[in-house]
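We modelled the chain as a single entity of 181 amino acids. Its sequence is:
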Amino acid sequence: MPPPEPAPPSLPRLFGSFFAVGMMGFGGVLPLARRMIVERQRWLTAAEFTDLLALCQFLPGPNIANLSVALGRRFHGPAGAFAALAGLLGGPVAVVLVLGAVFDRFAAVPAVADGLAGMAAAASGLVLATALRIAAPLRRRPVGVAVAAVAFGAIALLRLPLLPVLLALVPAAILSARPER
């Protein structure tokens, strides 16, 4: 006999559960949310979660925010959507505001400025390493390398607007991505 269906979560429970997920990590919390929704709280089955996530990936905006709104709405309408989203975003927003206030107060301290410069360098290195890892498959496609180089030059060096550059380069990018016959 299957376990009984759990009762729908209350508004405070929706808020608190999504608050906990939001505070566990800034970005990339979808696996934590799935564990909370499917395994711990049993608000959805694995199949229901997958279906809801597929819908949320189709919608504009961050998947986890869309998921929290959709799940909250499912149980309590607009109030549930607000409670789940406020829970998800409330903690991280508060932390960022507090860190901003602390930075504002101590920005002139040389150790703080040096620490931020070090973090900026580390973040830049991570972005560059990720970009190189993503671009590695292009090495075997000269047209792909050329498209990437033109995009970089147009956006980073010439400071042309992103959207027109991308729209102009899309046909070449699609052609470079086609498998060779």
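As a brief sanity check on the tokenised model: The chain has a mean pLDDT of 87. The radius of gyration is 22 Å.
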